[in-house]
Amino acid sequence: MKNENKNILYLSYDGMTDPLGQSQVLPYIVGLCGKGYKFTLISCEKKERFEKNRAIIEAICKEHDIDWQPIPFSTKPPILAKYYDIYKMEQKAVELHKRKNFAMTHCRSYISAAIGEKLKKRFGVKYFFDMRGFWVDERVDGGMWNLKNPFFRTAYNYYKKQEAGYIANADMIVSLTEAGKREIQKWGSYRQAPIGVIPCSADFELFSLVDSERKTAARKLLGFSDDTLVISYLGSIGTWYMLDEMLEQYALIRKKYANARFLFITPEPPEMVYERAEKFGLAKEEFVIKFAKRNEVPVFAAASDINLFFIKQSYSKIASSPTKLGEILALGVPVICNSKVGDVAEIIEFTDSGIAIEDFNQESYERVVNHIPELLRKDPASIRQNATDYYHLDNAIEKYYELYKTVLN
Questions:
Q1: Which InterPro entries match (predicted)?
Q2: CA angle 231, 233, 235 (to 5 degrees)
């Protein structure tokens, strides 16, 4: 007999009032509500964003009958604050389970997984581990944890042991990439739990296909002429995104295309770009740097001829799915990027949407420059269409629905 209990506890250390919560958590939950599941959502909310965006999230949750249980995100004392947050989330989860009898916990990333694993052991609740990348190794690869420091080395070893438990005890594992899935299957902790692959989705309604009218309007808004070759970058800078290498690539493009300009759509201060640009002989006038709210991003990005992003290559990045790639392809904009990050190179090839270099050197940069005429000839509608199966939110929701059924039935 099938399990008719469709009460799901969704645990997220990321806040719903964060941009990530609004783009990569709530849309999935809303879609699954439409499939008959009833959600209780625990998230950790940062004070300033909570005050600013609370009403928006409450309205969405009320409309879809989602029981949102926000918990204040702690910042002090450092490190211990995280453990306090985990404690608060766990206490809330246990209290709610005793009232609601959850069939499953959907755990977004590692901190939530610690709670899901405990609920499984204590109450027999099914445990769905939505990994969102190799969190522990990301701390090291991203430079946050220096393993020469005994404290961070201890933390790394502790969390790797925890990670092994999260993998071994899961009823379902979700990887963002096929490359990540293949790696997990090699781990000694892996116990044959099914692994689904669901990349970060893009909102194809918000990031709609750019036509000539929208492109012209965006260029006028940003001060670009019709004959400017607009190279764009979308998102944060630092840690994973290789500003120096992107500037070096742009400088080489600029030598051949004197009409090129670099558009940054980023929350970072412009000075961050200008300071590094001097190293490559690039003046401020080369750049247009704009901060954009989420609904403004596609408005500005519509000015692009080509989008450029380079991501640091590392072990942990094989499990990463850059959200920006799906959004860019949804707009129909061709891409210059790099391989050895998740499934990026395979996606670029599958969608016929651009070029992915393997190495950051003069030869690779020159190959990109020589490739630009071909990039400019690509059909935006074809790029978008080819990316739809891979990145469309509706397809991701359908995949989650099938995985939920696998666990619960």
A1: Glyco_trans_1
A2: 170
